[in-house]
Amino acid sequence: MSDKFQSDLKKLKEYTIEMGEFSITMFRDSLKALNDMDEKLANDVIGRKRKLAEYNNNIDEETLRVLTLYHPVASDIRFISCISQMNTSLYRLGRNGKDIAKLITILPNTPHLNVFKNIYHMGDYVANMIADVLEAFRTGDISKILDLGKRDNYVDNLQETIFRESFTYMMEDSSNISRCIEYVMVSRYLERMGDHACLMGEKVYFMIEGKKIEFH
Fold it and tell me: What is the pLDDT of residue 71?
C-alpha cells in the first residue's frame, strides 16, 4: 500500500485515540458530577454531546473513505474493523456519560444513599477497563487487557450487589424507590460499558495478534 494510505491510517488511529480520551473524560466527569451533585459540571458534560457526535461521524466517514479508496487487505482490514468497534463503543460511553449527568435534574439534591459508593466504584472500574483497552490500541501492548474477562465478571457481580442493596433500601422506605430505580439504571449502563470494554478488547487483540479471543 502507498505511503498516503499508511499516513491516512495513522491519522485515523490518532483521531480514534483522541475520541477515546474525550469519551473517557466525559464519562468520568459525569460520575463526578453525580457524586457531588454538581449541576455546573453536569451541564458541561451534557454540552459535550455535539463534539462526541462529531468524532463519531468523522470516524465513520473516514473509515468508509479509506475502504472505498484503498481496498485494504489482511492486517489493515483488522485495523479498520477495530476502529469501527471502538468508534461505536466510545460513542456509547460518552452518550451514557451524558445520560448519567442528566440524572442530576431528576434526583433530589440530598446526600446519596450508601449504595452509591458501589456505583461510583463500579463506574471508575469500568472507565479503567476502557482506558486500558485504549492504551493497548495505542501501544500494541496487550498485557493489560488479557484479564478483561475476569474484570467483566467483577463488574457483573457489582451490578447484582447494587440491585440487591437498592431493593433493600426500597423495601425499608418507599421514599427511596425513585432514587434507587435511577441507581439501578446507572448500574445497567455501567455493566453494558464493561461489555463494550470487552468487545473493544477483543478487536484490539485480533488487530495486534491476528488471532481471535473472547473476553465475555
Answer: 81
Torsion sign across C-alpha atoms 80, 85, 89, 95: positive
The tens digit of pLDDT for each residue in 91-137 reads 999 999 999 999 988 888 788 999 999 999 999 999 999 999 999 99
Distance CA 115, CA 185 (A): 13
The full 3-state SS of the chain, as one line of letters, equals: CCHHHHHHHHHHHHHHHHHHHHHHHHHHHHHHHHHHCCHHHHHHHHHCHHHHHHHHHHHHHHHHHHHHHHCCCHHHHHHHHHHHHHHHHHHHHHHHHHHHHHHHHCCCCCCCCCCHHHHHHHHHHHHHHHHHHHHHHHHCCCHHHCCHHHHHHHHHHHHHHHHHHHHHHHHHCHHHHHHHHHHHHHHHHHHHHHHHHHHHHHHHHHHHHCCCCCCC
pLDDT at 70: 82
Radius of gyration (C-alpha) of the chain in whole angstroms: 19
Mean pLDDT to the nearest integer, 140-148: 95
Angle at CA 96, nearest 5°, toward 28 and 43? Answer: 65
pTM over 0.90: yes
Contacts of residue 195, defined as CB under 8 A and 6 or more positions apart, other chains included, come to: 152, 216
